[in-house]
Amino acid sequence: MKCISNKSSEERIKEAARKVFLKKGFDGTTSRDIAEEADMNIALTNYYFRSKEKLFLEIFKDLLTLYFQNTLDIFNKDIDFKSKIFEAIDHTYAMVSEEPDLCNFIMNEVHRAPERLIPDLNFLRQVKHTQLGQQLEEEIKKGNIRPIGIENVIPMLCGYIQFIFMGKNMHMKIFEVDEEQFKQYALDHKERIKEMILCYLYI
Amino acid sequence: MKCISNKSSEERIKEAARKVFLKKGFDGTTSRDIAEEADMNIALTNYYFRSKEKLFLEIFKDLLTLYFQNTLDIFNKDIDFKSKIFEAIDHTYAMVSEEPDLCNFIMNEVHRAPERLIPDLNFLRQVKHTQLGQQLEEEIKKGNIRPIGIENVIPMLCGYIQFIFMGKNMHMKIFEVDEEQFKQYALDHKERIKEMILCYLYI
DNA sequence: GCTATTTTTAAATGTTTGTTTAAATTATCT
DNA sequence: AGATAATTTAAACAAACATTTAAAAATAGC
To answer: Per DSSP, what are the bridge partners of residue A145?
Structure first.
């Protein structure tokens, strides 16, 4: 009946695993990678989490939440449509700046083996029905915005800037720029996305 | 001094490897996966290609060419700017429709281990200097198009629609649609991207 | 048709993989 | 302080891994 004790060990493993999984993906990560990153015995991974798979699923859930929850909250905020668009884009940009492997990780894991992630992915269905969607419909009704479905708007707010970051290495190779120059480029492109969306939506 | 002979075996392995690598990525693919897909002995992979890594690099090069070459050719075609934009977008759409794993594969492999791919990636530098870039500059000089760098235009033509396909599984989960409905959605979104780009570029 | 070369095979190589074991250590509670 | 439970450890596990070997089979040239 010991349960309080070492929160630290379990947490250290989880943090290490998160770091390694984010960088190398599930297939590219070994139990020893995680143990080494956490500076702990290999057996502890299976002591605290029953398997590499279970540990991964826990971490994936956290990272999927990180990937979506804040955006979802913004979609449901009580602010006007245009401000919401700006805020969603700015937040997406901030998120991928802070966690540069997150998009590639989520995209790749979902693409490679969606089945095992289905329980977690169900959480995403909230995205379909948000206040942003209602506001969009209203604006369309008012004639301010051209007819368009929310499923077309969301990738504009989140996906376009994500793509820029996902292709970071390729961009740096193609245009022969360094990290700092890329950062400035991404920032500039983000503002262009904003203007482009407004330009397209408002007739 | 036999060299003519069995082109078929080497080719069969390469095709099998291409298929498996595309689906599972380098880390997720085993030599046995490839041998099984090709229905050949495991040793043949190392007989024809010296290692899994070397086989992968050969295939990666092919797939990177598939990913970029046609787009590059379009960029250098002798047609007007606006037609070129349409054609580039339509081609990107056709490419990812035909090879649905290609974007995820390229993005992920480049992201995960760019160093080993550098020799191949150098080929990408052609993208920086194309006739499309010159045409863009001219249009800007003429005052038809707002000031913008080619590095901002290319993702609009290629990346945005790619992102839609890369997130296919997630989209289907979020909006609870099937393959056919997704296809229609992607087609619609592609046309919106075209209009959005024109709407943004031409002042 | 025989020899030399290339291709294919089954088997084995030594590592690395995820996971387990059982003993040692540490912490907890009375 | 001593008994009990939780944690950590080193070692081992079998399975899967990429790769190699050496012999068998197929093919080539003379």
So the answer is: A202
